[in-house]
Amino acid sequence: MPESQKSKTLIIIVGPTAIGKTVLAIEVARHFNTEIISADSRQFFKEMEIGTAKPNTNELAAVKHHFINSHSVEELFSTGDFEIEALKIIGQIFVNHDVAIMVGGSGLYINAVINGLDEMPEIDLEIRAKLNKQFEEEGLDAIQTQLKSYDPEYFDKVDQNNPQRMIRGLEVFLSTGKKLSSMLSATKKERPFQIIKIGLNTDRAKLYDRINQRVDDMVNQGLLEEVKSLVQYRKYNALNTVGYSELFDYLDEKASFADAVSSIKQNTRRFAKRQLTWFRRDEEITWFEPDEVEKVIELIDKNI
Fold first, then answer.
1. Which of 129, 170, 247, 255 gives the lowest tally of CB atoms within 10 Å of its CB?
2. Is 16 annotated as a binding residue?
3. Is 125-184 in the same CATH topology as 3-118+187-303?
4. What is d(CA 86, CA 292) in angstroms, rounded to the nearest whole number?
C-alpha cells in the first residue's frame, strides 16, 4: 500500500457473538462517514442468512458493507484469501476516506489483516487424505483428541466444531512436526496505516441472556426452514457450524427440536467464551460496554 496511507486509520471492533458489534460499527461508520468490512467468517456466505445474524436490510442500507453475501458456500475462501481481498478493499476505502471500520468475531481473519499470515508449509497430501478418511469414519472427536494433544494452543484458539480447522492444525503438525499455533504468531507484517482496536463485552449473565434471546429470535424468523433449504449443501464446511449442525441433527432424528435449540444456545455460549479468550490476550484492545457508543467515538477521535 502507498506511503500516503500513513495518515489513515483502520478501526477494528471485536467481541463475542451477540454483543452488539454491528450496531456499534454502524454508529461509528456514520460518525466518520465511511464503510464497513465484515470479518465474520460465516456472513460471507450468501446462502446462510438467519443463522449467521447478518446486518438487516436497514443496517445494510445505512452504511456500505463489504464481505456480506460475497461468496457461496460452494467456494473455498481461506483466511489467506481474506487477508488479500480485505487489504485491497481497505486501500480502496482509503482513497476517499481517512477511516475504515472492520467488525467481526473471527479472530483468525482479523489477525490476518492486522499481522499478516506466515507462508504456510507444504502439506503431505497423503496425510491430508488419511485425516479426511479418519474424520469420515471416526468422526470429529478422534481428530479433536489428537490435535489437542499435539497443539493445544491452536486447539484452544479456533472453532473446535469446525472439521476443516481441526484437520488443518493436525495435518500441519503431522507433515512438519511443528505446531500451527507457533507459525501463526511468528512474524508480524507492518501495515501502512494506524490501527485502533475496540472490544465489546459485558457481564457473563447479560451476554448469555443476549445469546439465548438471539437464538430464540432466529428460530422465530424461520431458522429451521433455512436449514431445510440448505440440506443439499450440508457436506460443505461452511454449514458445519453452530445453528446449522444442531438442526441437521434434528432433521436426521438424532435430537428433538427443543434439544436442538437448547444445543444451539449452549454451543453459541461456548463459542462466545472462546472468542473472549482469544481477544483478551490482545493488550491493544480497549474494552467497552455495548451501549457506550459516545465513549468509543471519543476515544477514536482522541487517537486519530
1. 129
2. yes
3. no
4. 27
Question: Which letter does DSSP use for residue 235 in this model?
Answer: T
> What's the number of CA atoms in the CB half-sphere (13 Å) around residue 234?
17
How far apart are alpha carbons 139 and 8 in whole angstroms?
47
In this predicted model, what pLDDT tens digit does every residue of 33-88 receive, in sequence order? 999 999 999 999 999 999 999 999 999 999 999 999 999 999 888 888 999 999 99
Does the structure show a pLDDT above 60 at 3?
no
Q: 15 among the known binding-site residues?
A: yes
Q: Does 19 count as an annotated binding residue?
A: yes
Q: Where are the domains of the chain?
A: 3-118+187-303, 125-184
Give 142-151 contacts, CB < 8 A, sequence gap 24+: 143/167, 143/170, 146/170, 147/173, 150/174, 150/179, 151/179, 151/180, 151/181
The three cell numbers locating residue 224: 429451521
CA 239 from chain centre, in angstroms, equals: 14
Q: How many angstroms separate the CA atoms of 18 and 208, rounded? A: 9
CATH class (in words) of the domain with range 125-184: mainly alpha
d(CA 41, CA 103) in angstroms, rounded, equals 11
Residues 53 and 18: beta-carbon distance below 8 Å? yes
Q: Would you say 248 and 234 are in contact if contact means Cβ atoms under 8 Å apart?
A: yes
Architecture of domain 3-118+187-303: 3-Layer(aba) Sandwich (3.40)
The letter for the amino acid at 294 is: E
Q: What is the pTM of this model?
A: 0.82
Assess contact for 118 and 184: CB atoms under 8 A: yes
pLDDT mean over 106-131: 85
Q: Which three cell numbers stand for residue 139?
A: 468422526
